[in-house]
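Teaching note: in complex prediction, the entire set of molecules is handled at once rather than each chain in isolation. The prompt given to students was simply: 'Predict the structure of this complex.' The entities are:
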Amino acid sequence: MIAELGHFALTLAVAVALVQMLAPLAAGQLAGLSSLQRDQLMALAVPAAIVKAALILLAFLALMYAYVVSDFSVENVYANSHSAKPLIYRISGVWGNHEGSMLLWVLMVASFGAAVATFGGHLPHSLRANVLAVQSSIALAFLLFILLTSNPFLRIIDAPIEGRGLNPILQDPALAIHPPFLYAGYVGLSVSFSFAVAALIEGRIDAAWARWVRPWTLAAWMMLTLGIALGSFWAYYELGWGGWWFWDPVENASLMPWLASTALIHSAVVMEKREALKVWTILLAILAFSLSLMGTFLVRSGVLTSVHAFAVDPARGTFVLLILAIFCGGALTLFALRMSTLKAGGLFAPISREGALVLNNVLLTVACGTVLIGTLYPLGLEAVTGGKISVGPPYFNATFGPLMLALLVALPFGPFLAWKRGDVYAAMQRLVWAAAIAFAGIVVTMAIGGRGPWLAPLGIGLGLWVIAGALSEIAHRGRLGSVPLATALQRIAGLPRSVWGSSFAHAGAGIMTIGIVSMTAYQSEQVIVMREGQTTQIGGYSLTFKGAAPRRGPNYREEVGVLEVSRGGRAIVELNPAKRLYDAPRQTTSEAGIHASWRGDLYTVLGDAQAGGGYVVRLYFNPLVRLIWIGTLVMFFAGLLSLSDRRLRIGAPQRARVRSGPLPAE
Amino acid sequence: MTRKQRRGIMIGGGVIVLMIAGLLVMTALRDTIVFFHTPSDVKAGKVKDGQRFRLGGLVLEGSIKRGGGTDVGFSVTDKGSTIEVTYRGVLPDLFREGQGVVTEGRIDQGGVFRADTVLAKHDETYMPPEVAKALKEQGLWQHGKDGQAVKDQPITAKGAGKP
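The expected output is the structure of the full assembly:
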């Protein structure tokens, strides 16, 4: 009964979505309406957005209920759940499968729509109505996708007694919350998309538009950042491969919208402050969401050769491809039609804040392009010549790497360049300290790094350069050094939160760079057979193998190894890498034994028992690896800080009050 | 500077970055991509000597031999031809006889495939798509191994987690 209720709510949501989509469009297009009638039609979109979100939430809760009570008469629950599973994984199991995750996706679309309806009171009514209409068309497309190809509420006539279980490697806390964040990021970009399309429909695009759309883009970017980081963290400690990023097509699918939305945040600043780059910003907003949709298509259709790819269902693939073609194609067509009507904005010299942000955008989008080529090339080649190839990490290191390097070298200069016309030499003078710190970092790394590749110290220096550059900006704005310390600190404390936000975000990128470089260049690995009592050294630790013993868990059996870790003769910790065999589905997984410290992670994996006694063990020392995720966390909180800036939060300006003339030179 | 000149500089700069990126992409694609072949392809001489490639197929039943230490030997077959593979390291959790596998490496003088990577799978009913396709082309594998409909296969980790 509950499942039918969910199914019904979902179907009803389709009808409400239709109303939300058509009412504002009708108000704009139908002839012979009075202005009161137009207003009423437009206003209809607001309650519709809220009701639609409520209906989809109801459907989602219905499915969650079926999972929680283990109602195996629902096919989706039977295929993906098991009654012996702990409660949290029965709940996260809702989005641990195709149908449920699409329901979560559409719930997010509707929630963002309801948020725009609720918090968009300051927007012009026609813009808000059009944004909601576009947003609703996206929700409608995915509602139909769910109902026609991936219905999670289908029943089985003879209900089985037990379910088939959730893939055990999905039974993990990080992965339980990873999809919701990632989806919030993907779908948050649909708001920027809707704003762009609505502005194109209206034909009015100005600085105020950029200011309205920026918080939404920022929120989506934050979610995406955290979602990707969680996924990477999970892959790091759960897969037992000792790596954190594999350039898997599915990972690339989430990286591309992230790169595009990072570019979008920056170009929206130029548009907001200087009314320049309008055409480009609108295009980016469209592309960012199109990349999200493409990611969905790539994963949901199983069209890509990926070690992670799963069963191919042509009907679903075709449907998502159709959605992608309609939204991406439609928006780009509209863009092409309206592009010529957009007036060119403020002038600026190539060396200027705007110029720096353009460079940021060029590098990020080109980098995004190289990832796109690397991801789609195997598909294209197979379609044309039939040859099967794989494009792996070497390709991405050779293309994506240099572009990111250029971006990081240039990054600290940007905030020090003035709008309209900047001075590189003045910026350099202000970055002297940052350069000194970076140089010191290079020297120190060379001294202690030793055996690593020669590029590695430069990479560490680059990370320090970005961090110190970001801090220099704060110091410079507070006039640290040229006014008394107390005054400077007061000035620093009074800086707008958006300044803190951007500085922290850049520092986060620097922190992450250091983590990535040191993990890539200085990771040590050992694969050996260890017998009981045997000792080995890695990363300054000494590990003694004390054997392995079987153990019984709630829904698995495991073989647990015991490794005593000591450093400098002092016992530190006992690590228990394990090999698990789950009851349902019967599948083996590795549980890595990890000892984390600021110096780095000691990472151990238990392999197979050897015929002659002993076990194969895989040992890694991953220096400074935690910085990768700490960097992303810093970026996330930087976004939060920026989002709380009162300029963005309170009373965004009405159009009438926006200056349209050029700003005076600084 | 006029608006046109400024725009010219911007576009010029963008084009230069694009060209550099294009060059990087072209060289990288030429040097780093790895082709996929089945044992039959290898026997038919489709692989140049010393070329690095991915070898995919099923792990032949009864072929796994553990050497001293971490050395492992097994055979990959597509039921038409079979190739011996050696690998040093820990095999993925779901490596099993009779299951699909993808390995990456080179063929040595003795005709043995020296793999440095054995690709992990995420799922007990999962078949690497390249392998499935290659086997299907030879009519040796259909959807629904073990009588299971393909859509009933549990969804793999990355698939469910990352849309």
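Point out the following to students. Residues 141-163 of chain B have pLDDT under 50 and may be disordered. Chain B has two domains: 1-31, 35-143.
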